[in-house]
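Saturday, quiet lab. Running sequence design on the structure tokens for the scaffold JK sent over.
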């Protein structure tokens, strides 16, 4: 293995892993403070309301990463003017989308959450959370969207620092708003969006110091850029949000075949596994700048070398995390203030979600490789295979196995997704 390439790879990937880990910890921090304050009720409420926040973040990641991929390819091709236009055009697109999300989510928060399964007091708690998140959508979307650009401009460490600053702010404000001021769900939401605002400001400062260049293209070129960005963004958006789509399905079926306590159990499991998923995405998206660069330079050997390093790193991270989480499984529920009964459920069902993680590691890296090299069709296939397979499994198993069938749905879907990813990778490698 090329030592220089390996060193360059880890200079991108390690900060990316840490940055994605911190983005996942945002949710855990909110869950910790709410769970300790409101118990199982709070855990259920934030589990049902979290998809709203996750949607905004996933949209930002999708648009930002898509624009950053195009930015890197243009840089590798020496297209300085088009590179600047790509950055400016993507930023404008993110601002427009953020405005639309704010209007839609604020106006329709309650009916959306009702469709997601929230009722009565639970609906009130979730709505309070979602409306604050909607008001701060521009901060969250730009924060998550700018991070890929920072990374692709050679500022992987800066991206990590920006995330750390936002995370630290979130912790301090969660304590102040949720515990000290007793603002409940709304307090957790305010802490989240202010933390994201700090990350966004740090990103803007980086761009100013870097003198990245901000040149809006003409209308025809702008529309063409937006089309390209939107097409590619479907994959990184889906990769970030697919676990949330799965969560939506699981919440509905857990309420149908179980009760609110089952949702609280899944909430605890979801917080932990979400971080593991994000660590894997950190490996994939951290390797993306190099893969896109070598792809733009038509250096296939280096593309394959980076991909191989990504697979090995993802496996190593997954094994360490699986062992650590399994050994600490008895403490997961108590971390979030779950009742003894809910914690017993976490201990029982968490291993089911840990078992297929090595397979998921392969899927995540393969998906990142596909969209980094503009193989959009195959990346779409892998991104959305898991939630589709989960839904199909949920429709088939619970009528036969009741609640047990619900718990088995996600692991089975991930095994099927792995088979699809393996076949897709072999097909691409055979052509190259």
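Result came back. Writing it out in full:
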């Amino acid at each position: 293995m090329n030592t220089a390439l390996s060193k360059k790879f880890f200079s991108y990937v390690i900060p990316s892993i840490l940055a994605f880990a911190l983005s996942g910890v945002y949710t855990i921090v909110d869950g910790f403070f709410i769970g300790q304050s409101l118990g199982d009720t709070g855990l259920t409420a934030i589990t049902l309301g979290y998809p709203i926040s996750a949607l905004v973040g996933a949209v930002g990641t999708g648009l930002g990463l898509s624009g950053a991929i195009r930015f890197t390819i243009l840089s590798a091709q020496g297209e300085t003017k088009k590179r600047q236009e790509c950055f400016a055009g993507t930023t404008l697109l993110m601002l427009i989308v953020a405005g639309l999300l704010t209007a839609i989510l604020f106006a329709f928060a309650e009916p959306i959450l009702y469709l997601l399964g929230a009722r009565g007091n639970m609906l009130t708690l979730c709505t309070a959370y979602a409306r604050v998140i909607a008001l701060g959508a521009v901060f969250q979307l730009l924060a998550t969207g700018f991070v890929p650009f920072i990374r692709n401009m050679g500022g992987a460490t800066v991206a990590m620092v920006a995330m750390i600053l936002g995370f630290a702010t979130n912790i301090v404000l969660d304590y102040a708003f949720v515990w000290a001021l007793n603002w409940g769900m709304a307090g957790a939401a305010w802490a989240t969006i202010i933390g994201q605002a700090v990350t966004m400001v740090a990103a803007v400062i980086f761009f100013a110091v870097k003198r990245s260049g901000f040149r809006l293209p003409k209308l025809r070129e702008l529309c063409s850029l937006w089309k390209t960005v939107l097409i590619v963004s479907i994959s990184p958006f889906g990769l970030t949000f697919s676990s949330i789509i799965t969560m939506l399905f699981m919440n509905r079926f857990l309420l149908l075949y179980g009760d609110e306590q089952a949702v609280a159990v899944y909430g605890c499991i979801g917080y932990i596994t979400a971080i593991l998923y994000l660590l894997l995405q950190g490996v994939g998206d951290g390797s993306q700048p190099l893969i896109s660069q070598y792809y733009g330079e038509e250096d296939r050997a280096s593309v394959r070398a980076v991909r191989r390093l990504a697979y090995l790193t993802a496996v190593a991270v997954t094994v360490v995390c699986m062992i650590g989480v399994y050994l600490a499984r008895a403490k997961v529920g108590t971390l979030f203030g779950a009742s003894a009964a809910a914690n017993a459920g976490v201990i029982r069902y968490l291993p089911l979600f840990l078992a297929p993680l090595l397979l998921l590691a392969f899927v995540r890296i393969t998906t990142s490789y596909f969209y980094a090299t503009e193989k959009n069709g195959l990346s779409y296939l892998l991104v959305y295979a898991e939630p589709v397979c989960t839904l199909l499994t949920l429709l088939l198993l619970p009528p036969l196995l009741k609640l047990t069938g619900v718990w088995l749905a996600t692991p089975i879907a991930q095994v099927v997704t792995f088979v699809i990813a393996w076949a897709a990778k072999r097909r691409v490698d055979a052509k190259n």
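Notes for JK: The chain has one domain: 3-424. Residues 3-76 form the longest helix (74 residues). Ask whether to fix the surface positions before the next round.
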